[in-house]
Amino acid sequence: MRIHLLGTGTPTPSLRRMCSGYVVRAGGSTIVFDHGFGAHHRLLELGIAPTEVTHAFLSHHHYDHMGDLARLVLTRWDQGAARIPELRVYGPPPLARIGERLWGEDGAFGPDIISRTRNEVSLDVYRARGGTGERPPPRPEVRELAPNETVEGEGWAVRSAGVAHFGPHLVSYGYRLDCAQGSFVYSGDTGPCAAMERLAQDCDVLVHMCHYLSGTSPSKAFAQSVTGHMELAQLAEKARVRTLVITHVTEQMDRPGVRERVVAEMSRAYRGNIVFGEDLMEIPVAGPAPAALR
Questions:
Q1: What is the pLDDT of residues 35-72, one digit of tens each?
Q2: Using the 8-state DSSP alphabet, how is residue 154 labeled?
Q3: Is the whole model's pTM more than 0.90, yes or no?
Q4: Coil, helix or strand at residue 56
Q5: CA-to-CA distance for 17 and 186, rounded, in angstroms?
Q6: What is the DSSP string of 1-40?
Q7: Cα gap 178→214, rounded to integer Å
Q8: Which of 55, 99, 110, 151 has the fewest CB atoms nearer than 10 Å to its CB?
Q9: Does a cis peptide bond (omega within 30 degrees of 0) precede residue 94?
Q10: ω before 218 within 30° of 0 (cis)?
C-alpha cells in the first residue's frame, strides 16, 4: 500500500496547498479519497494518469473536497477511449444527483459530451486513442453510501462512518481502508466525535483535518464541526493511532515556528508519530524512519 497526499489545504486559494485530495494504491487499485480543486493537478505531478484511477470516495460535498471530480471523470473517460472500466464513485447523498447534473445528458458538461460522441473531429481523436465503433458517453458507476457501509475491492475493503460536519445541511463521512499491508483512515472534515475515534482504532495511518489552534474557536458550533490541534491529539491517543497526519491546514497555523509549536504541543497528548502534511508527500505505512547519515 502506498499513500500520497495530493492536497492538504482548505478553500483558501494557495499555490502551496491545493484543496483536499489523497491517493492510495492498494491491491492493484488506485483509489482517490476526495478530489478538491487542484488535487487532480497534484495527481499528474505524481505521475499517476487519470486512467489509472479505479475508485473515488468522497467524504462530503463541499467544493474543496469534490471540485475536481468532474475533471477526473471526464479526463479519464476521454483518455480511456472506452478501453477501461468505468470509474467507481462513492460518497454520501446526493452524489447521484450531483453526478447527473455534471455529466448527465442535460448536465453542465452535456454539450461537451455530445460533441465528443457525435462530431467527426472528436471521433477521429477517439479512434486514434484506440476506440472503436460508436463512442459511448461517460457512465461512472455512482453509489451513494450509508454510514457503516463497506465497499470491497481486490484485496482491500473501505468502510464509511458518519462524522460531525455541517449537519444537517451536509452528510459527511470518514473512511477506513484495510488491506494486507495495513490500514489507512481519512477523516474528511469533522469535529471531534466518537464515530471518528472508533473508525481510527489501532490504524496504521490516520489522515485527519487539523483546522485551527485549540482555544481559538469563534463559536461552539465551529468547534463541533471542525477539529482543533489538541482535540485531534487526544483522539489519536485514545484510538491508538500509529501515525497521525495533519491536513486541511489553515493559514492560522501554517507559519514557521507555529507549525513546530503545534507538533510539540500535540506530542504531549499523543505518543505516536506526527506528520505535518504537505502536498505530494508520501506517508510510509510502517511509520517514519531516519535516513542513513552520510
A1: 999 999 999 999 999 999 999 999 999 999 999 999 99
A2: S
A3: yes
A4: strand
A5: 18
A6: -EEEEEE---SS--SSSPSSEEEEEETTEEEEEEE-TTHH
A7: 31
A8: 110
A9: yes
A10: no
